[in-house]
Write a structure and sequence with these properties.
Blueprint lengths: L7 H4 L61 H11 L12 E10 L18 E10 L14 E9 L2 E8 L12 H8 L15 H8 L5 H7 L14 E2 L4 E4 L5 E10 L8 H10 L3 H11 L5 E9 L1 H6 L19 E10 L4 H6 L12 E3 L3 H17 L79 H9 L2 H16 L4 H14 L1 H11 L37 E6 L5 H13 L3 E6 L5 E2 L5 E2 L3 E2 L10 E5 L2 H7 L3 H12 L4 E3 L4 H6 L8 E2 L4 H8 L7 H4 L4
Parallel strand pairs: 11-12, 11-16, 12-15, 16-17, 17-18
Antiparallel strand pairs: 1-2, 1-9, 2-3, 3-4, 5-7, 6-7, 6-10, 7-8, 8-9, 13-14
Helix pairs in contact: 3-4, 4-13, 5-11, 12-14, 13-14
Bound molecules: CIS-heme D hydroxychlorin gamma-spirolactone.
Organism: Acidovorax delafieldii
Pfam families: Catalase, Catalase-rel, Catalase_C
Function: Decomposes hydrogen peroxide into water and oxygen; serves to protect cells from the toxic effects of hydrogen peroxide.
Length: 705
């Protein structure tokens, strides 16, 4: 076999692209010429120690075909750094998407708090907001059925305030003592390592069946809230009662609510499932694209304020995090808005390294005795010590306050500051510039008398596990109730252990007998299992229509995306007219074609495509349209991707604007056009239909429990 030349004279010809001063026997095959494409002025590549690097392609070797040398500090440093590029992912909320923005106060809460972020009108407080799924790992998909984290870091002039909430106003458990059990139960099962990012498995439902306090949150988890259409269309909740503290030392309880400007909207379950294959990054991409387009997501911050005396009159204990305060009971008062307007420069440095902690509150905000909150106050700092590698993570730019900060905390791993002077303790008399505590500006705690008997106790006022679960279920529209029943059937059908399935249905009997029956029927149970014993009677609480989603979907195309299918021979004028009309009312339009290079229109112009048909299923759109020649329509009617495009759009209750050429595809998909299927020439009709989902269609396309 012929071997490459090994003689020095043949092998060591320096590449001509190198300046003559760098040509030497030590360099060969430097691919400097490959790097000329970006243009601009490039700084010299260096090691971490600042040593300039001459060759970033070839490791140091004993001869061109010889072994690599240990001496190669450049190679070793590069590989060593790479080997340590990953840090432990969050045990929960590992998959996250974040953006920068600002919070602007519109109504001062001066009467209730001294916190400047809630009292100074018109000031834009910088924020960094991270949304997340809970159960899945960092590389899991965006659209499983799951609670979404909604964590906001306000960089206030009095230090960082982290409002670390969810898109659901209640939680599964009442006491932080149960959090590790809950998380172990919902994450992949420890012996088999699956399922990923899913609650539909035995361990989760086993835990739930033995923890009746989870039943209210289960109703939310099984509702359409956990399959949001977009991060921009989710509500957010601080969940717990917090306290506000005013200058006179008076305290008021507060609950925080975020409401999206685009309104709240969810997907349908089959769509969420298909999105998992269509686009793993569906939510992340949507947020990225909206911010890049200058279409900045916005939320209104509202508060519910109430006193201890008000709380005494509630038919539940507001310190129990499995309870919400219906807005019909304590109205929401809007106080400000949050706008997310800047995508992070670097995912790892910002989105991954950001560290939220519910204990981060500025003076004027304090905690309630909610036992779940009390446990959280400990957990986040603790987890960050190991996740971010030591006690100095607050110095990482994304975590550092944007106001001045000084203290005597010193040293430790990754210390980035170089404190000056002899004094690293307090009190001291040696230096005039050392930080001192300030009674006037410092954090004050609500002066509250607590003199209970020590014990591992649960208050009796936490014993009612079903009344609000019932209220939530019965407040939903019939269709949303059917979605919940179907979600329960889906999840429990993935549970292999019959007694677990039956135990959950037993709990449902306390929530709503009809719901229990529907789920039992869906599971094929021959008889209804017994309801577990309860210590408290289930109360008939007033219903809260504000908890629905379907009725509250905003009739707008803003924030929504329409796909238009075209192919060779499509009528360009029709496409342009439709696109213009849709964009005029705020929709984003994407062109889909059999080839990503685009379609050669009837008039001979090439219309580039945003997506290729086979890789851009209709699940990623809010409504679809098509403008096809009869020939192409007939051809595509034989194409599974095209037939699925329309069949799924129809099944996901989306409006369809289908030209005559498309009818063959609809026929192939067995679609019988209804009021939500219009002609693309009827632009206004299409816009009206696309602003909502075709809810009336649902019973025709799927059997709900
Ligand atoms: Fe938690 C992360 C929200 C209960 C312990 N939690 C985390 C995040 C959110 C929440 C949004 C992700 C923050 C980010 O984007 O980095 N958690 C909640 C809500 C809860 C809740 C709304 C109940 C009302 N959490 C809770 C309890 C405990 C924790 C009871 C422990 C006792 N949570 C953690 C954690 C995490 C976390 C393990 C994982 C990573 C991290 O904190 O930084 O410490």
């Amino acid at each position: 076999m012929a071997r490459p030349p090994t003689s020095r004279s043949a092998a060591h010809k320096a590449p001509s692209a190198l300046p003559s001063s760098t040509q030497s026997d030590n360099f060969r095959g430097n691919a400097g010429e490959l790097q000329q494409q970006a243009g601009g002025k490039h700084p010299v590549l260096t090691t971490q120690q600042g040593i300039p690097v001459a060759d970033n392609q070839n490791s140091l070797r004993a001869g061109p075909r010889g072994p690599a040398l240990l001496e190669d500090f450049i190679l070793r440093e590069k590989i060593t750094h790479f080997d340590h590029e990953r840090i432990p992912e969050r045990i929960v909320h590992a998959r996250g998407t974040a953006a920068h923005g600002f919070f602007e106060l519109t109504h001062s809460l001066k009467k209730y708090t001294t916190a400047k972020v809630l009292t100074e009108l018109g000031v834009q407080t910088p924020v960094f907001t991270r949304f997340s799924t809970v159960a899945g790992g960092a590389g899991s998909v965006d659209t499983p059925r799951d609670v979404r984290g909604f964590a906001v870091k306000f960089y206030t002039p009095e230090g960082n305030w982290d409002l670390v909430g969810n898109n659901i106003p209640v939680f599964f458990i009442q006491d932080a003592m149960k959090f590790p059990d809950l998380v172990h139960a919902v994450k992949m099962e420890p012996d088999r390592g699956f399922p990923q990012a899913a609650s539909a498995h035995d361990t989760f439902w086993d835990f739930v069946s033995l923890m009746p306090e989870s039943m209210h949150m289960i109703m939310w988890a099984m509702s359409d809230r956990t399959i949001p259409r977009s991060l921009r269309m989710m509500e957010g909740f601080g969940v717990h009662s917090f306290r506000l503290l005013n200058a006179a030392g008076e305290s008021t309880f507060v609950k925080f609510h975020w409401r999206p400007k685009l309104g709240i909207q969810s997907t349908v379950w089959d769509e969420a499932v298909k999105l998992q294959s269509a686009d793993n990054d569906f939510h992340r991409r949507d947020l990225f694209e909206s911010i890049e387009a200058g279409d900045f997501p916005e939320w209104e911050l509202s508060v519910q304020l109430f006193t201890e005396e008000d709380a005494q009159r509630f038919p539940f204990d507001h310190l129990d995090p499995t309870k919400l305060i219906p807005e019909e009971l304590v109205p929401l008062q809007p106080v400000g808005r949050m706008v997310l307007n800047r995508w992070p420069d670097n995912f790892f440095a910002e989105t991954e390294q950001v560290a939220f902690c519910p204990a981060n509150v500025p003076p004027g905000i304090d905690f309630s005795n909610d036992p779940l909150l009390q446990g959280r106050l400990f957990s986040y700092l603790d987890t960050q010590l190991s996740r971010l590698g030591g006690p100095n993570f607050a110095q990482i730019p994304i975590n550092a306050p944007k106001c001045p900060f000084h203290n005597m905390q010193r040293d430790g791993h990754m210390q980035m500051q170089v404190p000056k002077g002899r004094v690293n303790y307090e009190p001291s008399s040696l230096q005039g510039d050392t930080p001192r505590a300030s009674l006037a500006q410092g954090f004050r705690h609500v002066a509250q008398a607590d003199d209970g008997v020590k014990g591992r106790v649960r208050p009796e006022s936490f014993a009612d596990h079903y009344s609000q679960a019932r209220m939530f279920y019965r407040s939903q529209s019939p269709l949303e109730q059917a979605h919940m029943a179907s979600a329960l059937v889906f999840e429990l059908s993935k549970v292999g252990t019959p007694h677990v399935r039956e135990a959950v249905v037993g709990h449902l009997l306390h929530v709503d007998a009809d719901l229990a029956q529907r789920v039992a029927d869906g599971l094929g149970l021959q008889t209804l299992p017994p309801a577990p014993a309860t210590t408290e009677p289930v109360q008939e609480l007033p219903l809260s229509p504000a908890l629905r989603i379907i009725d509250r979907m905003k009739p707008t195309l803003q924030g929504r995306c329409i796909g238009i299918l075209v192919a060779d021979g499509s009528n360009g004028t029709s496409v342009a007219n439709l696109r213009k009309a849709l964009e005029k009312v705020g929709a984003t339009v994407k062109i889909v074609a059999p080839k990503v290079g685009g379609a050669m229109l009837k008039d001979g112009t090439l219309l580039p495509a945003d997506g290729q048909l086979a890789g851009t299923p209709s699940a990623v759109f809010d409504a679809v349209a098509s403008i096809l020649s009869p020939d192409m329509g007939a051809q595509l009617a034989k194409e599974a991707a095209a037939v699925d495009w329309f069949r799924d759009a129809f099944g996901h209750l989306k409006a369809i604007a289908a030209c005559k050429g498309t009818r063959a595809i609809l026929q192939a998909g067995g679609i019988e056009p209804d009021a939500g299927v219009v002609d693309p020439a009827d632009v206004q009709g299409f816009i009206a239909a696309a602003q909502t989902r075709q809810w009336d269609r649902e019973p025709q396309v799927r059997t709900l429990a």
